[in-house]
Amino acid sequence: MSRGSWIEYSADCDFPIENLPYGVFHKKDEPSTAARVGVAIGDSILDLSYVQKNGFFTGSLGSSNCFSQDSLNAFMALGRPSWKDARAVITDLLSKDGAKSQKDNVDFRAHAIVKQSDAVLLLPAHIGDYTDFYSSKEHATNLGKMFRPTEEPLKPNWVWMPVGYHGRASSVVVSGTPVRRPSGQIMPKDAKAPIYSACRRLDIELEMAFFVGPGNKLGDRITMAEAEEHIFGVVVMNDWSARDIQNWEYVPLGPFNGKNFSTTISPWVVTLDALEPFRVQGPTQEPAPLDYLKDESGKGSTYDIHLEVELGTAKSNGAMQTISKGNFKAMYWSMKQQLTHHSVAGCNMNPGDLLGSGTISGSTPDSYGSFIELTWNATKPIKVSATGEDRTFLEDGDTINLKGFCEGNGYRIGFGPCTGTILPAK
């Protein structure tokens, strides 16, 4: 049962009234040009374009058409005061006892509430730029041990700054979009020259990512004290990775075709206001960061978000097996530090820019966030319990779903699915 809304949902629902994540949708019987902004509540969507057109918002929100657009970018650009105003109005409308509760308004229910099962969920933003970081100390250490066993696993710069690279925004897709196995150059073991081949070591990366709200002008920077005012909200992300293509190409300039073929995100953007009850302190940073990266807010730097990786195969008939459980709070570098460092040289951030956390791995093998770690570079296969199959990397027909959620007192804050199924290479 719902705790405070006239929309009914179960206690383990991802989208209670305490959450209210934003997304973009249209009904299945509508053309894609009808896309607009909504908020998830239970198994339904509150159509914010209807709410806005019918005068429920005031001020800048009342005079804007930001919720009738096919992305969240315009709303993201309005900034935190408008985000807080919108959340307050939406909560009031959906509350059982809100001053403007619509529980008895039959017309409102008929026109403003859409079942998620009757909707098509789209990418929540027009993503102008996408950057992926490498901010899990455990993940970076594991890969260092695998590939540089005689050296220190972490490069010297890793403990001084959030290391990242610029990804490809055009291939960021919404949950449910199939993933085509990439092809490219690989260097077989003991070979003297590379070959062209379909990827043989297709992997996942369990990540979170955040969308930028108001940006900064070219030449300016965002400080640690300002960073949260520029973070709109968070999604779950799978940074699909072609390990063999990546391994051959990444020196000296970093990932390219091994990463740019697909990146999947969940469709609902969970706001920092919804995550606030789950704020916690992150890992101790030693050595202490340089002054511009120090968090002097006195508040926790990260969030207690449970994460899971589920695997299904073509033979498992839809059965999904949990193969990893981790937590976002294990990340060494925080979202605020990532955004601050990204802009420190004067890079201009824009509404809708997407910044990925990097693979999230914990300290135990069952909390690793990639197949290359879970199978320790293919030496310890994963057994698929439903079929008896082994997996070291992904095969055609395999499905991955990433889950994220916070456990509250009698409710959860969820992100919805982050799912993709592998199609054969062309």
Low-pLDDT sequence parts: none
Beta-strand content: 25-35%
Q: Round the Cα radius of gyration to an integer and report it.
A: 22 Å
**How far apart are the first and last residues' alpha carbons, in Å?**
48 Å
By secondary-structure content and strand pairing, the structural class works out as: alpha+beta
The percent range for helix content is 10-25%
Give a count of the beta strands, DSSP E runs of length 2 or more: 27
Shape: globular
Query: Quick check: average pLDDT?
Result: 97
In DSSP terms, counting alpha (H) and pi (I) runs of 4 or more, how many helices? 10
| Biggest sheet details | 8 strands, mixed
Description of the molecule:
With 426 residues, this protein is an alpha+beta fold. 17% of the residues lie in helices and 26% in strands. It contains ten helices and 27 strands. A hairpin with an 8-residue loop joins strand 20 (306-312) and strand 21. 46% of the residues are buried.
Question: What is this structure's SSE topology?
Answer:
Elements: E1 22-27, E2 36-41, E3 44-47, H1 48-53, H2 59-63, H3 73-78, H4 80-94, H5 106-112, E4 113-115, E5 119-122, E6 130-133, H6 137-147, E7 164-166, E8 172-174, E9 179-180, E10 183-186, E11 195-198, E12 202-203, E13 206-212, E14 231-238, E15 241-242, H7 243-249, E16 263-265, E17 270-271, H8 272-275, E18 279-280, E19 302-303, E20 306-312, E21 321-327, H9 335-343, E22 354-356, H10 371-374, E23 382-383, E24 390-391, E25 399-407, E26 412-414, E27 418-423
Parallel strand pairs: 6-22, 8-16, 9-27
Antiparallel strand pairs: 1-2, 1-5, 2-3, 3-4, 6-7, 10-11, 12-15, 13-14, 13-22, 14-16, 14-17, 18-19, 20-21, 20-25, 23-24, 25-26, 25-27
